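Lab meeting minutes (informal)
Scribe: AK
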Amino acid sequence: MSRRLFESLKNYCDSDYYPFHMPGHKRNPQSGALAGFYHFDITEIDGFDNLHQPQGLIKDAQERAAGLYHSQETYFLVNGSTAGILSAVSSVAGRADKLIISRNCHRAVYHAAFLNRMQLCYLYPDELDGHFFAGPVSVRETERAIRDILIQENAGAEDARRLIAGVVITSPSYEGITSNVKEIAELVHSYGIPLIVDQAHGAHFGLHPGYPANAVTEGADLVIHSVHKTLPAPTQTALLHRNGALTDGEVLRRYLRIYQSSSPSYLLMAGIDEAVFLAEREGRAGLERLLSRRRDFVRGMEDCRHICVCPLTEPGKLVIEVKGYPDAGQALYHILREKYHLQMEMAAGNYVVAILTMMDGEEGLARLLKALRETDREFEEVPGVRREQMRDFDEGRWRAKALPQVDLTLWDACNRPNRDVALTQAQGETAAEFVNLYPPGIPILVPGERIGRETVEEVSSALQSGYTVQGVSEGKIKVIQW
């Protein structure tokens, strides 16, 4: 068996080789507070391979990752899933100028479309009755989007491959909702179109039968996994998998060289390799423990009156909802953080999201359970939250009947002169930059879209509730200067 990257790194850095090369800290113990970290930090030197033309250690490490995920080819990403998404979309952009994407894609998908001057066509996730977040993308909706393009172009099914560069979906979503990747892949392949799946939050998929299958085995052509999100790996580490004949490996590698650093961190690459090794060796047992602890947690919440765990998500996500309080997510988030020192991943609407991994121990879940049970008993007295009849899922950006009016292409909008206007006065204007709630980084507005009354109200409400809204500064938004 080939040696793991970190083993080689440790052996070299513990040796008497003196570094007359980068990085500038020279692995010197006197190089500051991070000297221990720097001890293993090297550049591309003899014996340590090159990420952009791997032939040794890194090649072996990528092949181990490909074996774990059953992928034809797997590439290490040290610039995060963002670099993988940019590379994946760019690699198919030469096929056609139209890209079908689910509206709830991460902003990196939009950035890739912008860079390649692509025309975006949207898939809208299904609604989930009684919940404030989007459901899966359906096969029916994917078929609708493809057929709409063919009708607009007065073309037949055989023309789809020259009109549509690819289809991009996110599965799982930030809230842990999965789409039927297998059936969507079969559909788009029947038209000769490649499927890209942003599975950043699903690096643990396929490692245990109690969790969803990973998108590679379900037939997707390009799949992105953030190993740092749900596996024990450093922030900024991810994987990109390629399969099948609908994408070009050489073109993909060209874009990886463009979007990834020419000086990739060996610490990050070693972190990916170690996460893969741990997943191979302990992943199934670790995820089994997590399933058991999660089941105990959910049972412990059963007698709560107001707070509950959404049953629709994959096991790695806890979406904790407050029934009857449509705007309580931010309040619950702050209670858990300030009173109990429990930092949630995000808050929105009436819910908070907690990410669970096989590295979660009993103590953390026990603390969260105790905090939620105590908060549930007192929730009617929490200041600033309103009890209301649960309203329908009404975020217009998800609904096909509320398709945004597009005044300019994404490329044109980003390159036109713009001006600042007060958000309250923006109705009827054309957005000049992205506006998105962060996290999760999903656009509410895309440059070139007409700003409607509902959007102004939604953004204003998010700001008033204390959410981070990127693209709005001091109550102002950038619009096109016509």
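Next up, CB showed the second protein from the same session:
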Amino acid sequence: MTISLNNVGKRFNYDWIFRGVTHTFSEGQQYAILGHNGSGKSTLLQVISGHLHHNEGKLVYTHDGAALEQEYLFRHSAIAAPYLELVEEFTLQEIFDFHQTFKRFIPGFKPGQIMEAVGLEKAVNKQVRNFSSGMKQRAKLAPAIFSDVPLLLLDEPCTNLDAEGVALYQRLIAEHAMQRTVIVSSNDPDEYNFCQQLLRITDYK
């Protein structure tokens, strides 16, 4: 998956969050969008993901050598972000079952194996409402990282994770994501230290 931005800008009402973003996210590379809280890095990630519409400029998505319309990007991408909530009434099993109606997991991995990989195998039948904040974050990251898609988008992926959870996240990325296009929105080096390229949102104010 390759994503090209040409003079992309986003505003809310009359306030520009960023303007003039021209950058190419190349296939199989890992990127970090950096900036302090409230700087607009999450907004840029949401524009890239198609969750928000940009106000100026152009985005071009290319997959397997062919142009991809933004409305179909969801089929080829996975995202984990603080503003994307889990269904509190679902059990973990139901979360995974629902996810699989949209996306397959990496070949060779079944839901039970993925739950075990993130330390949630004992919570398979527990409702999300009864999860700790750290368990919820693991339940967000697991389906995203293990989705069989070429584009992985992560916004502050270690939110609510303790040191053990951060180490788990880093290991899962190293084992399952380094051949894909990965874009991380963060201001915490523990979340993006594997990224080869850094994009600072403050350069586009």
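CB comment: DSSP finds six helices and nine strands in the chain.
No objections, moving on.
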